[in-house]
């Protein structure tokens, strides 16, 4: 048996179907407009804060861009360098869980106050420590030469004065010395060649580098005094920070095996990282 449907009935069915579809669509849109968004799995950004009292970095924008682009491949990481110590420490005071990169001298001064623990230590030329040297141009090691003119230094004034005090044990004399800030240790040495300073604070590593770069100048450099061995940069974290610290440490420790990572490390004056152990811990560290 065949049922005949009139054209008018077909039109009524078509209108009814369109009306039902429109109604369903409106209901779905209404529910979506008031329903909470689907939960996201985005991880919070982990920031590595950097300040070094041993280097007058003048390319902060480049340093941040280079490290941000490298760290981005591992997740939501950000590299934040600071120009001055007070701003850096003010940031630490607000953070209960963070990762920081700083000089060993600075770390030793603030570790207890901010509850920091060491995670990695910088390495260069197979060593995790260095000596600071006070040098002059000329065949003399007389201390009076230091009192004349400026002392070129790539370190902060506080740190430079600390090193000079360790060498001379004379606070009054150290406070009177004039310090010329330069970006890098090698610049401190080159300033002697240009006559910009009479003496310079540098490292044994930089002095060896100068011998390769400028043998003529290096032969004219005399060592006046030297400091004790001190550790290179420290990667540290607050004691409350847990698994995330291990992840950051793993990323940094593997940088030396990656050409792009190694290039970034060299911007910090390093060649790699080593884990903290009993041989490179400071006194009082657990």
What topology emerges from the helices and strands here?
Elements: H1 7-34, E1 46-51, H2 60-71, E2 77-81, H3 85-94, E3 99-102, H4 104-114, E4 116-123, E5 129-130, E6 132-137, E7 150-153, H5 157-168, H6 171-176, E8 178-181, H7 185-193, E9 199-203, H8 204-213, H9 215-218, E10 221-226, E11 230-231, E12 234-238, H10 243-253, H11 259-266, E13 272-275
Parallel strand pairs: 1-2, 1-3, 7-8, 7-9
Antiparallel strand pairs: 3-12, 4-12, 4-13, 5-11, 6-9, 6-10
What does this structure look like?
With 286 residues, the chain is α/β, with parallel strands linked by helices. The chain has two domains: 46-128 and 231-275, Periplasmic binding protein-like II (D-Maltodextrin-Binding Protein, domain 2, 3-Layer(aba) Sandwich); 132-228, D-Maltodextrin-Binding Protein, domain 2. The protein contains eleven helices and 13 strands. The strands form three sheets. The chain has a six-stranded mixed β-sheet. A five-stranded mixed β-sheet has the order 8-7-9-6-10, with helices on both faces. α7 (185-193) crosses α8 (204-213). The model is unreliable at 24-40 (pLDDT under 50).
Percentage of residues in helical conformation:
40-55%
* Strand line-up of the largest beta sheet: 2-1-3-12-4-13
The total tally of domains equals 2
Stretches where pLDDT is under 50 for at least 5 consecutive residues are 24-40
User: What letter string, H or E per element, gives the SSE order?
Assistant: HEHEHEHEEEEHHEHEHHEEEHHE
| Overall outline | globular
Which range does the strand content fall in? 15-25%
CATH topology of the largest domain: D-Maltodextrin-Binding Protein, domain 2
* Count of alpha and pi helical runs: 11
Q: Sketch the major β-sheet.
A: 6 strands, mixed
The CATH superfamily of the largest domain is known as Periplasmic binding protein-like II
The CATH class assignment of the largest domain is Alpha Beta
Report how far the terminal alpha carbons are from each other. 94 Å
Structure classification: alpha/beta
- Oligomeric state of shown chains: single chain
Tally of strands = 13
User: Radius of gyration, Cα only, in angstroms?
Assistant: 30 Å
The residue-averaged pLDDT reads: 83
CATH architecture of the largest domain: 3-Layer(aba) Sandwich
């Amino acid at each position: 048996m065949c049922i005949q449907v009139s054209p008018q009935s077909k039109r009524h069915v078509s209108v009814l179907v369109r009306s039902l579809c429109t109604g369903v669509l409106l209901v779905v849109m209404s529910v979506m407009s008031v329903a909470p968004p689907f939960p996201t799995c985005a991880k919070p950004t982990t920031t590595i804060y950097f300040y070094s009292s041993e280097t007058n970095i003048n390319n902060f924008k480049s340093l941040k861009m280079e490290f941000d682009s490298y760290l981005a491949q591992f997740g939501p990481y950000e590299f934040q360098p600071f120009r001055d110590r007070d701003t850096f420490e003010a940031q630490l005071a607000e953070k209960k869980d963070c990762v920081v990169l700083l000089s060993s001298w600075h770390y030793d001064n603030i570790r207890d106050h901010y509850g920091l623990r060491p995670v990695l230590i910088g390495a260069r030329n197979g060593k995790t420590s260095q000596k600071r040297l006070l040098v002059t141009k000329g065949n003399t090691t007389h201390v009076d030469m230091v009192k004349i003119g400026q002392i070129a230094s790539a370190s902060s004034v506080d740190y430079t004065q600390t090193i000079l005090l360790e060498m001379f044990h004379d606070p009054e004399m150290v406070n009177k010395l004039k310090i010329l800030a330069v970006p890098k240790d090698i610049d401190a040495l080159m300033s002697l060649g240009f006559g910009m300073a009479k003496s310079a604070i540098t490292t044994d590593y930089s002095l060896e580098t100068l011998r390769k770069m400028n043998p003529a100048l290096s032969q004219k450099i005399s060592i006046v005094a030297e400091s004790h061995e001190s550790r290179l940069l420290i990667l540290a974290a607050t004691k409350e920070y847990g698994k995330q610290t291990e992840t950051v440490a793993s990323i940094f420790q593997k940088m030396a095996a990656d050409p792009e990572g190694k290039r970034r490390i060299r911007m910090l004056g390093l060649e790699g990282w080593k884990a903290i152990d009993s041989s490179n811990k400071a006194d009082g560290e657990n």
